[in-house]
Amino acid sequence: MKDKSFYIENYGCQMNISDSNIINSILLKNGFVLSENLEKASIILLNSCSIREKAELTLKKKLEQLKFLKKKKKKIWIGIIGCFSKEIKKFFLKKKMVDFFVDSNSYREIPNFIHYSIMGKEYFNFTKKNETYSDISFIKTKQNDKKISAFLSITRGCNNMCTFCIVPFTRGRERSSDPYSIIKECEHLYHNGYKEVTLLGQNVDSYIWKKENMIQDQKNIVDFSHLLDLLAQKIPFMRIRFSTSNPHDMSDKVLKVISKHKNICKHIHLPVQSGSNKILKLMNRKYTREKYLFLVKQIRNIIPECSISHDIMTGFCHENEKDHQETISLMNEIKYNYGYMFSYSPRPGTYAYRKLEDNVPINIKKRRLQEIIDLQNQHSFYRMQEHLGKIEEVLIEGESKRNKQHWYGRNTQNLIVVFPKKSLNIGDLVHVEITDITSATLIGKHCK
Length: 448
Ligand code: 5AD
Ligand code: SF4
Known about the structure:
The protein is of the alpha/beta class. The chain has three domains: about 5-120, Rossmann fold, CATH 3.40.50.12160; about 140-385, pyruvate-formate lyase- activating enzyme, CATH 3.80.30.20; about 390-445, CATH 2.40.50.140. About 35% of the residues lie in helices and about 25% in strands. It contains 13 helices and 20 strands. The chain has helices spanning about 15-30, 55-70, 85-95, 110-120, 165-170, 180-190, 225-235, 250-260, 275-280, 290-300, 320-335, 350-355, 360-385, and strands at about 5-10, 35, 45-50, 75-80, 100-105, 150-155, 155, 175, 195-200, 210, 220-225, 240-245, 265-270, 305-315, 340-345, 390-400, 405-410, 415-420, 430-435, 440-445. The strands form six sheets. Strands 2-1-3-4-5 form a five-stranded parallel β-sheet, with helices on both faces. It has a five-stranded mixed beta barrel with strand order 16-17-18-20-19. Helix 6 (about 180-190) runs parallel beside helix 7 (about 225-235), helix 7 (about 225-235) packs parallel to helix 8 and helix 11 (about 320-335) runs parallel beside helix 13 (about 360-385). Iron/sulfur cluster binds near residues 160, 162, 165 and 167.
């Protein structure tokens, strides 16, 4: 094959961004060349997401567009990689729109999938169930040259089996990368210009690594609190973030480590999904409203400056007006800094899809969603006011998209801060006085 140019397009979450870096490294090491432009590439990889119906619809639309490119160019090969359901694979196979599919445990095999596809053959591989990719190092390219913030997966898969969620089916059982490879990779990222790393997992709090072939006493077990403590000391000049925390697994031990180290950012993403115990039980979330509220209290006791964000889903099976009001009252009690809100879409293969009735009409799902979005906007504005007049440490990430004369960065609470440029650089950690706010942005001026 003469033209080995490839292009990866991302759909979905931060984990997909970190997976795309792994795929980049695998392909670059195998003689492929990263193309800056989808139209110029001969291999197009769509890193898919199937967590909500909307992400799959976006993927379908993209493939419709690619049909035209396929007609225009002599030959291109299209692969769907990452997090896709059996149903979507069947759909695309039937339509003959995709040349190959690579699941999230088989990235090492992508060069083979491409070669076989070019020969017009199908490639079969055995999916590795315990794959962590912990030996694959990030490679700097033109595309990520100016980036200073990286994502690194520390756990893959999920064992929680929330009834609405497809992740345990698409990404498999949970497994953790070994702590030494995580430290090594963070140091590698730092030497490549990165100033911040976000440790990723569906449930980072259940990170656990046990040294093999040794009697497993305490010394040989590393849990999430140990990992954070270790990393904070090994990479003192890097900011450390993590996502996502599961309320069921988060411990005081972790909170104490976060409060102990300045370079561990003071932000916790703590999806709640619903404020109703009835719905939490139907979702198999393994915590109650009361336990969740207690955890928030603990976070605020141990790390008073910590911001808290959420995921909430409206219109899950059997959610009535009372359940919805319980979500609203929980939001009012906590007043989150920000959050991600969705209406429930059944995912084929999940327990909820098979066993629970999707019985909340779409217009009610949407109305409830709008109500919680409006409420969250009010709470975000309320929380932003707490920053007015304060001097905050901001890591500069780039130029503001709205105003090229302003820098854009984030404070430790993961809130966006913009301020007028003054001979500073991307990657600088600076002090900014907050002089104005919106519900989504802190506005300030650089102080010496
Ligand atoms: N429908 C709607 N939202 C979902 N999420 C996960 N599965 C579904 C679904 N079937 C949301 C949850 C989760 C976030 C990543 O996506 O809120 O925390
Ligand atoms: Fe899905 Fe629940 Fe696992 Fe999150 S914790 S990935 S919602 S099964």
